[in-house]
Specification:
The chain has about 240 residues and is of the alpha/beta class. The protein has two domains: about 160 residues, P-loop containing nucleotide triphosphate hydrolases (Rossmann fold), CATH 3.40.50; about 70 residues, no CATH class. The strands form two sheets. A six-stranded mixed beta sheet has the order 6-7-8-3-9-10, with helices on both faces. A four-stranded antiparallel beta sheet has the order 2-1-4-5, with helices on one face. The protein starts with a strand and ends in an 8-residue tail after the last helix. The C terminus is likely disordered.
Length: about 240
């Protein structure tokens, strides 16, 4: 469904991605792990169109979206929940969800809102509350819910567990699995918590200094001694 081929990207003269090849099949959860500064966030942002790829291409359902405007990419069924949540702090929960629905057909809004609030009942209790007054976990739920309001077929999640308490992290990962299973949304997950990410994912990739160095099933990568030493032992995780 989503394919990244020989992708190069960066900021100005600094190249952050050096020929990335990644595929995400329909219905999969695929995760990308890597150390701080490896380029994981840059990859997700380049897939969405900002920054632009300097070489290579991004395909969605076989269609080249590499140079399309960001709003057109969103309308084709790709949604991004960014690192740091980036909700609209002064807007209410409902207004944040309305912003997510801008690229979707308005006739589906009521059904989509009911679906998202069913998934995140905590948000239903706080519809009129300003986003900035929510807890970290609630803000993450809002960021994911906002992305889901665009009716995506592919959901890009950037560090959804960042800064959250362990109990909340487990709940967020349960919700990601539920979104994938029940709502048939394909997920590409960048995550600092390598253990939870690989345990959840069907497949995974490891990125080092802007290059993919390893790939395999989630179980294979979890069992890999190099991965365990770098990202799992001692409870140490890495993130962009």
């Amino acid at each position: 469904m989503l394919a990244v081929e020989n992708l190069h990207s960066g900021y100005g003269r600094i190249e952050a991605l050096h020929g990335i090849d990644v595929t995400v099949g329909e219905g999969e959860i695929v995760t990308l792990i890597g150390a701080n500064g490896a380029g994981k966030t840059t990859l997700l942002m380049t897939i969405c169109g900002q920054p632009r790829a300097s070489k290579g291409r991004v395909l969605l359902d076989g269609k080249d979206i590499t140079q399309l405007p960001m709003h057109k990419i969103a309308r084709m069924g790709l949604a991004h929940s960014p690192e740091g949540r980036r909700i609209f702090a002064r807007m209410s929960v409902l207004e944040n969800l309305q912003m997510g629905a801008v690229v979707a057909d308005s006739k589906h809004f009521a059904d989509d809102l009911e679906r998202v609030l069913g998934l995140f009942p905590r948000l239903k209790e706080r519809l009129t509350q300003r986003g900035g007054t929510l807890s970290g976990g609630e803000q993450q739920m809002l960021a994911i819910g906002r992305a889901l309001m665009s009716r995506p077929r592919v959901l890009l999640l950037d560090e959804p567990s960042l800064g959250l308490a362990p109990l909340v992290v487990r709940h967020i990962f349960q919700l990601i699995e539920q979104i994938n299973r029940d709502q048939k949304v394909t997920v590409f997950l960048v995550e600092q918590n390598a253990y939870h990410a690989l345990k959840l994912a069907h497949r995974g990739y490891v990125m080092v200094n802007g290059k993919v160095t390893l790939s395999g099933t989630g179980a294979e990568l979890l069992a890999n001694p190099e991965i365990r030493a770098a990202y799992l032992e001692g409870g140490v995780t890495s993130h962009d």
